[in-house]
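Board notes, transcribed. Complex of a protein with KG4.
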Amino acid sequence: MSEPLVLGIETSCDETGIGIVRGRTLLSNTIASSMDEHARFGGVVPEVAARAHLEALQPSIDAALAEAGVTLDDLDAVAVTSGPGLAGALMVGVGAAKGLAVSLDKPLYAVNHLVGHIAADILTPDSEPLEYPTIALLVSGGHTSLLHVRDLTTDVELLGETMDDAAGEAFDKVARLLSLPYPGGPEIDRAALDGDPDAIRFPRGLSRASDLAKHRYDFSFSGLKTAVARWVEGFEADEANRGAAIPVADVAASFREAVVDVLVTKALAACADLGVPRLLLGGGVIANRRLREVALARAEAAGVTVRIPPLSLCTDNGAMIAALAAELISSGRGPSTLAFGADSTLPVTEIQVAEAVPA
Ligand code: KG4
Ligand code: ZN
């Protein structure tokens, strides 16, 4: 099958994503987010996300089919995110995908969410084919991972990941500290516009020589979040600042600089160490202006080419899941059996789960 028509279902976090691709061509990318329902809690509430997926799935599938101009019968395969992500949220997508595949008698591909983020690159219009190997930095509200991708369908290695908060989560938590609404990333980005990134020197997690020996490619943002909290407390407690407003713009710009600095430094260190002059960026935090700016400038200086898919493909979506399955199909891989479930900690090395053993 050269150009398989695949419907992908993504429910690992708060986006119900349904995407349809024909081979490497994007036909539709429908996203229903439950973000507004999480706003008053300042972060994604798993039960709320799972229920929202249940409600959004059927209308999203209908909308995606209509947009693509295809019917369920036309599909060559169904694809779904098996993990990693929120267990309850994943379960809704996995259940729906199994039901759909069985009732339509179509092959089912259960795939890895993180590898899906890399597959998003393939759908980027008018782009040159993805070259291997590449380093990939995936940053969202749920994950912060640095990967070495030798081949999308067979060989993805985890170099490092966050030991505590995800980068997006750090933005959300610091926004809350500064009384900015959820999601915090765009709010901090906006607040930082008028701020001085050098006003406050916040810590760069896991960047000291003693940390680098063991955690060269790992990230930690909880110390940074605490440092911002302490700084704000200190400002408020200082008699000299009595009646003065917290300098939100400077705090936001300095915090953002610390996150961006660590992300870009570690990603480019991986490129240099492994001799890989290519860096692929993905995840919702890529929307951050400063991150893109610093990554592009420092990569250019280091002779590294940066690829950034359009934002609609960087945030969680079903099209990237469909694209990964289409690549697996095109490279001759068989479908998954039904013997799989939601795996909230699925390792990135498991690109496809429960692949049927050929008879
Ligand atoms: O990939 P994504 O849509 O999926 C989830 O993780 O659910 O990423 C959302 C995350 C949130 O934490 C949000 O605050 C962050 O991405 N984000 C940003 C920006 N826009 C969204 N972080 C920093 N700067 C931004 N401009
Ligand atoms: Zn994601």
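The first strand starts at residue 5 and ends at 10. The two ends are 20 Å apart (CA to CA).
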